[in-house]
């Protein structure tokens, strides 16, 4: 199994994030990727592979060009405005505000292109998010060339990012970019199964009206947990996409049996859909020791998660969340070792 990761992804190195009404140490750090990389390259059957640059085009197949340009220009805009530190939005369009005009002012742009204040944006973010998307694209390319599985160590993560907004530590939606790339290279159907603790609202929104990419997500109930405003079981897709979106919200405190059962349910729907490629949006924040999450899977449960995700379909793992930095590497390694068992 090839492992894709670029050191350029480390450049996004936020110091602080807004949480509980204060600036606190950022939890989505480059160290996360470092830990996962170190642990994964010791798993039997995993090899770090060289990366190609697929350019900006496959990112533009998913994201709005105005949005991409804004992330690209942000560092300069921030400095020109005479600001220091990291960028945070503080104003958003309310329910009946206009969203058809993009404000000229930096604070207006920040609100236009985001949905939360918990995601620090810096001058180095664009380059790292671009490299993270390239890791996803290299993984997709490996499968298109015949590999049975690949691991894209995407970081910053992607599943909260929509077509034209960032949030939840996510800027480019790596899983969506990979899925779209499979389609653009001739795949008829792609499934994305999101097993991160948080609902993959961005991925859901990107494909909500489409039947060529099936989206499924197991996550904490949004009535109780971030991202709060999307991820309910009655969100089933719209128009042509109706019946191609599946949400499995679970209570806080969920343990392995319930979690694994819901993954099994999702896999049944994937079988019914019969995709050419399966993308797993893999967050390991369902771990009991995760500092921002409230599911209770243990380290030994990780092997079971990986083993359950073995189907006979080409499978691309795309890294999402997981913040228990000390355990992150061994948890991801256990999932992949479970997946690779014969
Ligand atoms: C990103 B991913 C804690 C704030 C947490 C956002 C969580 C984003 C999770 N006080 N805010 O899905 O792992
Ligand atoms: Zn998460």
Automatic annotation (TrEMBL):
CDD domains per the UniProt record, alphabetical: HDAC_classII_APAH
Cofactor: Zn(2+)
Domain Histone deacetylase, first and last residues per copy: 27-337
UniProt xrefs under SUPFAM superfamilies: Arginase/deacetylase
Keywords: Hydrolase, Metal-binding, Zinc
Domain of life the protein comes from: Bacteria
InterPro entries reported for this sequence: HDACs, His_deacetylse_dom, His_deacetylse_dom_sf, Ureohydrolase_dom_sf
Family: Belongs to the histone deacetylase family.
Name used for this protein in its record: Histone deacetylase family protein
């Amino acid at each position: 199994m090839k492992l894709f990761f670029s050191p350029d992804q480390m450049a996004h190195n936020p110091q602080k994030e807004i949480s509980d009404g204060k600036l606190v140490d950022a939890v989505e750090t480059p160290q996360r990727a470092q830990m996962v990389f170190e642990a994964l390259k010791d798993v039997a059957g995993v090899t770090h592979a060289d990366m190609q640059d697929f350019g900006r085009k496959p990112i533009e197949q998913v994201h709005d060009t105005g949005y991409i340009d804004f992330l690209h220009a942000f560092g300069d805009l921030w400095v020109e405005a005479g600001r220091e530190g990291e960028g945070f939005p503080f104003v958003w369009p309310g329910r009946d505000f206009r969203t058809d005009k993009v404000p000229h002012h930096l604070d207006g742009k920040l609100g236009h292109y985001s949905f939360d204040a918990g995601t620090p944006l810096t001058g180095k973010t664009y380059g790292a998010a671009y490299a993270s998307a390239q890791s996803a694209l290299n993984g997709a390319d490996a499968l298109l060339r015949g590999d049975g599985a690949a691991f894209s160590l995407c970081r910053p993560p992607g599943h909260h990012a929509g077509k034209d907004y960032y949030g939840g530590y996510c800027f480019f939606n790596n899983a969506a970019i990979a899925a779209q790339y499979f389609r653009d290279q001739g795949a008829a159907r792609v499934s994305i199964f999101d097993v991160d603790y948080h609902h993959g609202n961005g991925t859901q929104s990107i494909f909500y009206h489409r039947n060529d990419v099936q989206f499924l997500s197991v996550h904490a109930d949004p009535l109780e947990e971030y991202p709060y405003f999307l991820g309910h079981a009655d969100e089933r897709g719209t128009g042509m996409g109706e019946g191609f979106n599946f949400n499995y919200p679970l209570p806080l405190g969920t343990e392995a049996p319930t979690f694994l059962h819901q993954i099994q349910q999702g896999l049944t729907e994937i079988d019914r859909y019969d995709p050419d490629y399966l993308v797993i949006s893999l967050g390991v924040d369902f771990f009991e020791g995760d500092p921002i999450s409230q599911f209770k899977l243990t380290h030994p449960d990780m092997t079971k998660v990986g083993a359950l995700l073995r189907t006979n379909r080409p499978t691309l793992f795309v890294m999402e969340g997981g913040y228990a930095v000390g355990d992150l590497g061994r948890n991801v390694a256990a999932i992949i070792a479970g997946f690779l068992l014969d």
